[in-house]
């Protein structure tokens, strides 16, 4: 009788321990590493370096003592240890955990820091090697040097991924969101194409022509003219093709984007498609507008 009681208590204890352990594990935010943006001051668990052990990860900001709207630095903690700090006075920061190339078994971290109107002042890609954080690329790379916050898409673990960028070029079509295809190879991020699809609300916006616009068969003014968009007709932008590649994107004295020449692949209401020329001499406002109205935000 006593032996059976001890055996029952032993089994009960083992089951209780298993239940408790399972309950605790289910409440520590163990995430699959695909495209996870972390919340500030929240603990997450990822196997960052592929050793089979999940690291506890969290990032914090140090609030500016003179102005609570700003912080003075961003710090990353792994297993409760401060392993990285970026000193920069700004108002927002975010970390994203990615698995850009699953063959290397390591995860990538993307840090973005910025100010008002989602303007970005710093970004970098990082890895945890088990002892320290290694920054292997940042926004000094022209392929990543955008003025505003970006998000990720199409992260499939094959080394290629996309970033969705707010108005990556100064063009006479106003503000727009474009999908920029990139690839990671030998710890360097580069663009894979010079043509970028518009996404979200940008590909649905209807531009009303201010004057007649020639539509070409190819992205060249030397190409055959397929048809003409008449004054007052509406078109949608499908994709853009800047005439300067991303590595030569021009900037003004204060870092603002200078207007460039480009082409846009457009679609009419009747379904006809082709390329129009976007001259840098045209503008998104004033008398030099190509369209009567263009999207704009802060």
Description:
The protein is mainly β. It has 2 domains: 162 residues, no CATH class; 88 residues, Roll (SH3 type barrels). The chain contains 1 helix and 20 strands. The strands form 4 sheets. Strands 10, 11, 12, 13, 14, 15, 18, 19 and 20 form a 9-stranded antiparallel β-sheet that branches. Strand 8 and strand 9 form a beta hairpin. The radius of gyration is 25 Å and the shape is elongated. The chain starts with a helix and ends in a 20-residue tail after the last strand. About 8% of the residues have low confidence. This is SH3 domain-containing protein. Keywords: Signal.
The count of helical stretches stands at 1
Integer-rounded radius of gyration: 25 Å
H-E order: HEEEEEEEEEEEEEEEEEEEE
- Content-based structural category: mainly beta
Percentage beta strand: 35-45%
The major sheet is characterized as: 9 strands, antiparallel
Number of strand elements? 20
Average per-residue pLDDT, rounded, comes to 87
Level of helix content?
under 10%
Termini separation? 78 Å
Molecular shape: elongated
Low-confidence stretches: 5-28
How many domains in all?
2
Quick recap of the structure?
The protein is mostly beta strands. The chain has one helix at residues 2-25; strands spanning 35-37, 44-46, 55-63, 71-78, 81-90, 92-98, 108-114, 120-128, 133-138, 150-153, 160-166, 177-185, 188-191, 196-198, 206-208, 213-216, 225-229, 234-242, 262-268, 273-278. It folds into 2 domains: 35-196, no CATH class; 201-288, Roll (SH3 type barrels).
List the helices and strands and how they pair.
Layout: H1 2-25, E1 35-37, E2 44-46, E3 55-63, E4 71-78, E5 81-90, E6 92-98, E7 108-114, E8 120-128, E9 133-138, E10 150-153, E11 160-166, E12 177-185, E13 188-191, E14 196-198, E15 206-208, E16 213-216, E17 225-229, E18 234-242, E19 262-268, E20 273-278
Antiparallel strand pairs: 1-6, 2-3, 3-4, 4-5, 6-7, 7-8, 8-9, 10-11, 11-12, 12-13, 12-14, 14-18, 15-18, 16-17, 18-19, 19-20
């Amino acid at each position: 009788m006593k032996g059976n009681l001890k055996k029952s208590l032993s089994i009960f204890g083992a089951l209780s321990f298993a239940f408790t352990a399972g309950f605790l594990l289910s409440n520590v935010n163990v995430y699959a590493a695909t495209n996870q943006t972390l919340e500030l001051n929240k603990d997450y668990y990822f196997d960052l370096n592929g050793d089979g052990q999940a690291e506890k990860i969290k990032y914090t900001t140090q609030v500016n003592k003179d102005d609570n709207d700003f912080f003075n630095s961003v710090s990353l903690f792994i297993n409760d240890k401060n392993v990285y700090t970026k000193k920069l006075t700004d108002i927002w920061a975010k970390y994203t955990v990615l698995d850009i190339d699953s063959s290397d078994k390591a995860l990538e971290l993307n840090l973005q820091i910025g100010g008002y109107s989602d303007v970005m002042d710093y970004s970098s890609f990082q890895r945890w090697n088990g002892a320290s954080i290694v920054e292997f690329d940042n926004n000094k790379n022209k392929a990543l040097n955008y003025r505003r916050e970006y998000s990720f898409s199409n992260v499939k673990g094959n080394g290629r991924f996309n970033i969705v960028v707010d108005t990556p070029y100064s063009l006479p079509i106003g503000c727009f969101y474009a999908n920029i295809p990139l690839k990671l190879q030998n710890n360097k991020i580069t663009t894979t194409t010079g043509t970028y699809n518009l996404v979200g609300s940008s590909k649905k916006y209807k531009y009303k022509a201010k004057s007649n616009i020639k539509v070409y068969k190819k992205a060249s003014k030397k190409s055959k003219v397929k048809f003409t968009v008449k004054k007052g007709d509406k078109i949608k932008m499908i994709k853009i093709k800047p005439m300067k590649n991303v590595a030569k994107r021009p900037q003004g004295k204060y870092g603002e984007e200078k207007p460039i020449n480009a082409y846009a692949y457009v679609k009419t209401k009747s379904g006809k498609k082709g390329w129009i020329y976007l001259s840098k001499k045209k503008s998104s406002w004033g008398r030099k507008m190509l369209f009567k109205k263009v999207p704009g935000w802060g």
